[in-house]
Amino acid sequence: MLAAFVRFFQPKERLVRIAQFRINDRYQSQSVWAGHPVSVDPSTLIPPPPPEFNPVCEKSGFGTLCTVNFSDPPFAGDSGLACGSGANTFEVFQFSTRSVQGRRYYDQNRNLLKRHFREYLAGTYSNPLNHKAVAFSGSIMHVHDLTIPGTTRAEPRGFLAELGSICRMAGTVLIDAGRATITEDGTILSEAGQHPFDEYFVFGDTTALQPLCDALAN
Questions:
Q1: Which of these, 3, 17, 8, lies nearest to 136 by C-alpha position?
Q2: Distance between CA 91 and CA 84 in Å, rounded?
Q3: Is residue 113's pLDDT more than 90?
């Protein structure tokens, strides 16, 4: 559940991790002004939400609240995980989808304060030699508190992700779940839970994902 976990679903990244998360936000999400929603042009915000995020922005009690909702094209390719040895070695193939729902909070001066978003991940890991596959699904919640309003730089202790993944075939094969506090550059300040993907990809423990390899090999 490390930086590798958080950066996971970008095209050249590795295996997925997934999560469940709850957060109590001190900001109120009402988007009403004088009893009626008042739209805000996203391009007037600092910085503006990317147009491809399909932002919908409205005035709120603290300033402006934007909701975003988008999906990436499906990814299909090498997961970065190698299983087996000798003639039985195989590279795990990954197919995955990713969609995102989130909120961006702006102050009265239209400067960005916070970014909260959840990634929904699903797909399969498969063995290209025998075509066995293991399905995964779950989500990752990200909480970014900004150092300076109107920038995109997060506080060292404000970039938070709660993560967890479940890989299933006939039953549960592998679980990766927990929480991490991570800086913008990927430095992990704290973490809790079980994180076999990070053990494998970050710390070099080649046995961490063995249950997944075994499920795909047998």
A1: 17
A2: 9
A3: yes
